[in-house]
Specification:
Layout lengths: L2 E5 L2 E4 L2 E3 L10 H13 L4 E3 L4 H4 L1 H11 L8 E6 L1 E2 L9 E2 L3 H15 L4 E6 L8 H13 L3 E7 L3 H8 L6 E7 L6 H4 L2 H8 L4 E3 L6 H4 L3 H17 L4 H10 L6 E4 L4 H10 L6 H12 L5
Parallel strand pairs: 3-4, 3-12, 4-5, 5-8, 8-9, 9-10, 10-11, 11-12
Antiparallel strand pairs: 1-2, 6-7
Helix pairs in contact: 1-3, 3-4, 4-5, 10-11, 10-13, 11-12
Length: 297
């Protein structure tokens, strides 16, 4: 496993385990403990959460395992997100809340649910046009001084949104978690990845296999991509095309950190195996061209 330095004293595994679909895995607490051990045994030590996952239930489910086996906490880095409020009996619409009270309140819940005294990295889940960056800065400062959050970042922020927030903060932003895959290259083109390289931070990537569309998509783009991935798979000796798709991400100089959302070790190990491959510029652009449908300018 490779590890990426995110901040002083904080390294993330190059492959992160995401828990958005934890409830779909249908694991008992003991089975989840075994799965966490299996993942950490192959080097996946960074765990990605959000307060809203599983309609606000996933962190607590995860915490049942940590509370039963507290020794596991010292072997992992916990990332979680806050800021989204779902429509409910107490909320008339889905909205974003980045008030000091909400940020700190959600952190307190995450700490309690997950059975830990600190979060390694707290991310703001989505940019909000109503956010007060000065208030966010206050919340971050207080959480940091209280030792409840070690580092901070954002998710799905565009460069102008990132830089605006950063200009108010006394703590650094160490990552921007965004969508990126062979089939969804928007964040390669809108300045997000370039901004991360400029800031010398490593982006975390959600949906690195486009929700499985590299396997199941029936459009012309998906078919062209699969044909190209298969050609490169044979060239580099990979077992399947998903390893090539992950290698395409690992080969980028930004030090991209994909999140795998699988509850099966045989699938979670796929991106780990892909770490041994680095694509040439020609191979990388073969994939780019297959998806774009035209050559580079």
């Amino acid at each position: 496993m490779e590890y990426m330095k995110m901040a002083e004293g904080l390294d993330f595994s190059r492959v992160v385990l995401g828990f958005w679909r934890l409830l779909d895995w249908n694991l008992t607490t003991d089975e989840l403990i075994r799965y966490l051990e299996e993942c950490m045994d192959i080097g996946i030590t960074t765990m990605d959460h959000a307060d809203i996952y599983g309609n606000y239930t996933v962190e607590e489910k995860f915490g049942e395992a940590i509370k039963k086996r507290p020794d596991l906490r010292n072997r992992m880095q916990i990332v979680t997100k806050c800021g989204i409020v779902y429509k409910s009996e107490t909320a008339r619409v889905k909205y974003y809340d980045y008030s000091v009270e909400h940020i700190k309140g959600q952190v307190e819940k995450s700490l309690r649910y997950m059975g830990t005294d600190h979060i390694d990295t707290l991310l703001l889940h989505r940019p909000s046009p109503f956010a007060d960056p000065a208030e966010i800065s206050q919340a971050f400062d207080e959480l940091y001084k209280e030792g409840k959050v070690r580092t901070f970042g954002v998710s799905n922020f565009l460069p102008d949104e990132f830089r605006l927030l950063k200009s108010y903060l006394n703590v650094p932003l160490i990552t921007d978690q965004v969508e990126l895959s062979c089939l969804r290259m928007d964040n390669l083109e809108n300045g997000v990845i370039n901004m991360c390289m400029e800031e010398r931070i490593h982006p975390m990537l959600w949906s690195p296999l486009a929700g499985g569309r590299i396997f199941t998509g029936e459009g012309e783009t998906e078919k062209n991509l699969r044909e190209t991935l298969e050609i490169i798979r044979e060239e580099i000796g990979a077992e399947d095309i998903d390893e090539v798709a992950f290698a395409w991400l690992f080969s980028h100089p930004a030090g991209l950190i994909p999140i795998t959302g699988s509850g099966e070790i045989k699938l979670a190990s796929r991106p780990v195996k892909a770490l041994k491959y680095r694509l040439t510029a020609e191979e990388w652009f073969m994939i780019w061209t297959a998806v774009k449908g035209h050559k580079v300018p």
